[in-house]
Amino acid sequence: MGCGTRESRRARRDGDRRDRQSAGEVREANVRPVRDCLVPGCGPKPIKGRGYCGLHYRRLWAYGDPLREREPMPKVCIADGCESASLAKSYCQTHYLRFKKHGDPNKGARFYSTGSCHADGCGRSTARGRYCTTHRARLDRYGTTELPPRPERRAHAQGYVLVKRPGHPVAQKDGWAMEHRVVLFDSIGPGEHPCHWCRRPVRWSTGLLRRDSLVVDHLDDGRTNNDLANLAPACVTCNAGRKYLGDLLTRNGNA
User: Fold this and answer.
1) Which overall architecture, per CATH, does domain 153-252 show?
2) Neighbour-count burial of 17, counting CB atoms closer than 10 A to its CB (0-12 exposed, 13-18 middle, 19+ buried)
């Protein structure tokens, strides 16, 4: 048992010795040969590649010439009119980031002018280009520095037609009114009028609807058909009942 133990220990020592010898051979094989660099006067150094030492090989790879040395970077940014300290590529941080992103140290910069806006009648200072902030925004949005004419008609969210009628009796505070209300009011005038369906008296009102408020009813249920022949005064109850009955018939397939 003891002899076997000594033999196993001896075998392990021999194996470790062989491993160390093989590792040393590998290290010796990986050691770069030491000989004279191709550059005169460089002396014997480990050769990096193509017969040059590490220093001259890096210069050859970067500049194409093993004798060219790296030019010292100026202390001040080389961009026109910039006096900041240089950081990389002879530029300061701002101009270097622009050069890295656009390829031009001056591209992407914001230029501010102290001149007057070129729009007619505007004396404000320019913020970007030849115009002030207001006229530049109009130019970008509409293609001109003048505001486009406001529309006199537009669509309502519920499908009706709105018209601009400032000061009209049925117009809202902002001057917009439902076209069907304007058409019927101009035809029958103010005051009380009988409901087209139940003959209950109703009158014109604005704002919140009351029980006696006049509601303009579209006889063909077309909200954009504002011909006078298609409009009739109605009370709130009849107008809502007709809408409920139309929805009910539509759901049942009887419309």
Assistant:
1) Alpha-Beta Complex (3.90)
2) exposed
